[in-house]
Amino acid sequence: MNITLHKSQIVNRKSKVTITGSKSESNRLLLLQALYPDLKLENVSNSDDSNLMANALNTQADIVDIHHAGTAMRFLTAYFSIQEGRTVTLTGSKRMKERPIKILVEALQDLGAEIEYEDHEGFPPIKIKGKKLTKNKVSLKANVSSQYISALLLIASTLENGLELSLEGEITSVPYINMTLSLLDEIGVETSFENNTITIKPTTNPDSYRDKQPATFTVESDWSSASYYFSIAALSDIGTEITLTSYKENSLQGDSALVDIYKHFGVSTVFKDNALTLKKDTLRLNPLSLDLKNAPDIAQTIAVTCFALGISCDLTGLHTLKIKETDRLVALKTEIEKLGGDVNITDKSLHLAASNSINELVSIATYNDHRMAMAFAPLALKTSIIIEDAMVVSKSYPTFWDDLKSIGFEITSN
Ligand SMILES: O=C(O)C1=C[C@@H](OP(=O)(O)O)[C@@H](O)[C@H](O)C1
Ligand SMILES: C=C(OP(=O)(O)O)C(=O)O
């Protein structure tokens, strides 16, 4: 379904939106709950990816299809590797079959896991024969995706001898690794991350973690989803306020860097009672240079904010974007150029030139990528725009379009 976003304004200058739980935290905690069933969760994400993760952990089927959910694919590869006596084929969408998994599979094989490629070496689908893993030392390349590392860390405390992981090369998306370690700490698993080595102690006595475990873990709302409101605030009139719930000032999510990043666009943020209020308080139109290797999921949001404001930007640290839901560098260049922008990309960076006009009623292709749809939506504050295959947003944020309507966006189905 394509939709048209008619040139809109935020009608209510003090709007409020409740955002679902973090997809990243939810997917980790769902897996930990499958390993440690006493763990209770609140505000779990209602995203497709988290639903797929929960269903995959609950099914006894021989074939598990996780569609477009990359994090679920990587985490479940590790999970099924330790399900003794069970054989599972893990597969996904056409794009998932192009998203590399070899670094994780090799690390698990080094630990003793039995995994075979069903189609192309290095890519899903994979057939996993669950086994008890007793080896506890492995090294892997850390510059391609942090999801491989988190996957190993999440099962590590249930391995007989724990795990000592040596990370090779520059480590990418570090906040996601720290999120995994923090969640393990919270449920009482002993972890350490020194130099390039992560150590996880085994939990031989379940009571030792049960004592320390919080009775209920409340997932913080999703910061990547919040990014679209930071962009909306940046493109709104001075004085506009948007309040988002439920957030923590000390977040585990690296995308909370938005608070500092959006100051550049004149957006200030105030935390109060688990709510985050964004306020556009100054007009700032300076060029932006930013390394996003710690926050790759907000690259599309920031590139579109800059384009909408007509300012130039140099975004670096984008080497993981080519293997996400689509090649996000190519997708951004193609779609921003349809709107009249001028974008240069390499394999790890994007340069957007300053501009002073935006083409009207352009139809934005979304390439099965929720973030393409959501990142371009704020442009409706400047011009009418069409978003193709709009329901793609359900991968991480199913109520996105309803929430935009609630704050004044005028949206019709085509
Ligand atoms: O661990 C996670 O929850 C994620 C890690 C990141 O992936 P990479 O480490 O592959 O960049 C991020 O892009 C993804 O959306 C979620
Ligand atoms: C990259 C993303 O997700 P995944 O890798 O889990 O498919 C994302 O949500 O932006």
UniProtKB/TrEMBL annotation:
**Reactions catalysed:** 3-phosphoshikimate + phosphoenolpyruvate = 5-O-(1-carboxyvinyl)-3-phosphoshikimate + phosphate
Q: Where is the active site?
A: D297 (proton acceptor)
Assembly and binders: Monomer.
Q: In terms of one coarse class, where is the protein primarily found?
A: cytoplasm
What pathway annotation does it carry?
Metabolic intermediate biosynthesis; chorismate biosynthesis; chorismate from D-erythrose 4-phosphate and phosphoenolpyruvate: step 6/7
- Pfam families tied to this protein: EPSP_synthase (PF00275)
Q: What is this protein called?
A: 3-phosphoshikimate 1-carboxyvinyltransferase
Domain annotation Enolpyruvate transferase: ranges: 56-404
* Job description of the protein: Catalyzes the transfer of the enolpyruvyl moiety of phosphoenolpyruvate (PEP) to the 5-hydroxyl of shikimate-3-phosphate (S3P) to produce enolpyruvyl shikimate-3-phosphate and inorganic phosphate.
Sorted UniProt keywords: Amino-acid biosynthesis, Aromatic amino acid biosynthesis, Cytoplasm, Transferase
Question: Has UniProt tagged this entry with the keyword Cytoplasm?
Answer: yes
Gene3D superfamilies, alphabetized? Enolpyruvate transferase domain
Please tell me the species this chain comes from.
Answer: Flaviramulus aquimarinus
